[in-house]
Amino acid sequence: MSGFSWEDETRRTVLEGRAALERTAESLARSQRTAVETEQVGEEVVSELSAQRQTLLRSKQRLSDTDHELSQTRVLLRKMTLSVLTNKIILIVIILLETCILAAVCYMKFFHH
User: Fold this and answer.
1) So where does this one cross the membrane (predicted)?
2) CA gap 35, 38 in Å, rounded
């Protein structure tokens, strides 16, 4: 009977070992599936981040272009403002000259006989 008990004990140990091995294999399979899913998610995230990076780079370039155009517009507006002021000054000088000429003509006509 002691041989039977030893055989039963060995069989039980082998079955427990096999059950542990199967649990370990299932755990490894789950871990592998999780790793594959995680890798897929990681690839999707990297792809999305790459697309967002490209979008940000394009936005940065457009912003730089807009800034350059604004600088050119400021220069143009300054030139236009200077031109308008110059035209106003010229008009004022012309009006003053015409007023002086008119006053001189009136003086000559009425007071210089």
Assistant:
1) 89-110
2) 5
